[in-house]
Amino acid sequence: MNRAAKTVLAIALTISAAAALIAIVLATGTEEHVDPQLWIGLLFGGALMELATIPGDEEEAEHPFSLATSFHLAAIMLLPGGWAALIAGGATLLGETARRKSLIRIAFNTGVAITATLAASQVFTGLYQGETIRNPGWDIYIPVTAMLIVYVAFTVFAIEAISTASTGNRWDVMSWVKRPELVSYLMEGCLAVVLAVLIKAAPQVLAFAIILLGAVFLSMKRHRALRRETRQTLKALAAAVDARDPYTAEHSERVGQLAARFTEALQMSVKDISDARWAGRMHDLGKVVVDNSILHKAGALDEREWELMRSHPNVSADLLQPLSLTSDLAPAIRYHHERPDGLGYYGLTLENMPVEAAIITLADSYDAMTTNRPYRSAMTHEAACNRIEECLGTQFHPVLGKAFVQMLRGETVDPVELPRNSSPPRRWFWQRKVTVASPFLDDGWQPTSALDAEKSTKGTHSLIP
Ligand SMILES: [Fe+2]
Fold first, then answer.
1. How far is ligand 1, taken at its centre, from the CA of residue 268, in Å?
2. 446 CA to middle of ligand 1, Å?
3. Ligand 1 centroid to residue 430 C-alpha, Å
4. What is the 270 CA–ligand 1 centroid distance (Å)?
5. Which of 127, 138, 192, 459 could be disulfide-bonded to 300 (CB atoms 3.0-4.6 Å)?
6. What is the C-alpha to C-alpha distance for residues 372 and 386, in angstroms, rounded to an integer?
7. How far is ligand 1, taken at its centre, from the CA of residue 42, in Å?
8. Which residue in 331, 335, 284 sits closest to 312, CA to CA?
9. Along the chain (465 residues), what's the average pLDDT of each consecutive run of 10 residues?
10. What is the CA radius of gyration of the chain?
11. Cβ–Cβ under 8 Å, residues 5 and 162
């Protein structure tokens, strides 16, 4: 653990200790009777949910899923001040200990549960003026919404703080807006209301709610398994495409790893890093439509063969866009053969070239240059770096290319102000195809960079395989 992460951890634990103290004071100070059956049920129910956590894929920035939050939120609605926070902390402590997590992790997660629940409970009790949760009226919506917002805000803030500090990635709370975890929290808030009302009004029918809870849990487990299997299938497909040519075996996997390393060096968010890894792995999937005779052709390609070859980024993107798992990767993949000077496959220029595509181009080119090809042997690391530098602004993004070479040489990467305004041409739903304005079809096209020249003179068909 680095120094920044240790500092964040120390601050988080201090805040948590203070929150725990406040919760104890509030709990012991209450005059309201607390039903032991109720708090024991919530404590062990929450711990059980924690224990049944479905792990997330860390490499994909996927967070673990559990329904423990429903119990924390139900406790807020059912128990007097302080008790809910202690129940949430106790349930997390028990569950995480049973899952044999590290001491630091247990302490951090328990602290976050106590703090988030205490803050949310203060907001809920302050806003909810209703007589009892047994017969809630329309006035329940605002306190529940506020409680959920505060709980989620505290949790997200804590997770983002510790992950930013330990990885050195960019602080990116806004990326949570698009994450499925936020929908899970919303669902858990709704479950909490149903649980709380049932426990108070009709505990005899609680069994139905528990069965429902189990169904939600199982469907989430299936959903995660499906995502995992889809990833594995896509990975296998990409590997199969690479394996058609012995020269490009494992090329996509290396491009993915390199693109991820670069986005990490640029201190981009965890989601951006994961997207870069997948875009790299999938970028040449569309070569599945290109015949082996074209892929392995030693001589220059004719116009029809070129057209097919040029279609592969679009085919890759079109294959992946309909899948919710990979739809975000489409711009990076569709435009991975674009160049700042407009001489790429589809004629995009620096102004409208997506940043993510420029990253894939760099990783793709470096890997292509440093591996053996039928028409030339592999370049050395330094020669490839020099070649990228020579082509900055023509073939490669000038700012990103410079930072990429710095990373490759093990130098400190200059902070890059990413041009967030750059965007690919919008593809409306009635448009069947992106208009291809390709310089390769123009009779007068001449190679304009060292790599183009190499392609042209050697008679090979792929500038960046
Ligand atoms: Fe490609």
1. 24
2. 20
3. 26
4. 25
5. 459
6. 18
7. 54
8. 284
9. 84 89 88 85 90 81 83 91 91 91 90 94 88 80 94 90 79 71 86 90 85 87 89 89 80 93 86 90 90 81 87 92 88 93 89 91 94 82 95 93 94 74 43 36 32 37 38
10. 27
11. yes
- Give first-to-last CA distance, the chain, whole Å: 39
Q: Among residues 182, 159, 57, which one has the least CA distance to residue 109?
A: 159
- Decide which of 3.30.1320.10, 2.40.50.100, 3.40.50.2300, 1.10.1760.20 is the CATH code for 3-227: 1.10.1760.20
* Nearest-angstrom CA–CA distance, 106 and 35: 28
Both tokens of 263, joined, read 């986005």
Collect all residues with Cβ–Cβ distance below 8 Å to 458 and sequence separation of at least 6.
375, 376
3-state secondary structure 10-44: HHHHHHHHHHHHHHHHHHHHCCCCCCHHHHHHHHH
Query: What is the residue-wise DSSP string for 444-456?
Result: T----SHHHHHHH
The segment(s) of the chain belonging to CATH 1.10.3210.10 are 248-455
| Dist. CA 389–CA 368, nearest whole Å | 16
In the beta sheet, which residues pair with residue 373? 376
Predicted structure pTM score: 0.69
Question: What is the three-class DSSP state of 373?
Answer: strand
CA of 154 to the centre of ligand 1 (A): 43
Whole-number Å distance between alpha carbons of 323 and 351? 28
Kindly state the tokens that stand for 161. 């703080």
Burial 157-183 (b: 16+ CB within 10 A, else e): bbbbbbbbbebebeebeeebeeeebee
Question: What is the whole-number distance in angstroms between the Cα of residue 180 and the centre of ligand 1?
Answer: 30
Whole-number Å distance, alpha carbon 169 to ligand 1 midpoint, is 28
Q: Which two tokens stand for residue 365?
A: 């080119």
